[in-house]
Amino acid sequence: MMQSFIVEHYLNSTVDVYCGGPDIFRGTIKACADNVLTLDNEGKLTHIAIDKIIAMWAQ
């Protein structure tokens, strides 16, 4: 359910993603499949398990 929401509303958008702790992941959503969110931040890809996401907001 979260995966389809991300694809429909945020694909190719720049977002911040919070999964707990001190780190916030920032980047442009390039893919969201198999319960993994892929962010691109200046050519570096970050892959995040969707079930670990606590909050996400657009920049």
From TrEMBL:
Pfam families the record matches: DUF6897
InterPro entries from the UniProt entry: DUF6897 (IPR054192), MM0924_fam (IPR048163)
Protein name: Uncharacterized protein
Source organism: Methanosarcina lacustris Z-7289
High-level lineage: Archaea, Methanobacteriati, Methanobacteriota, Stenosarchaea group, Methanomicrobia
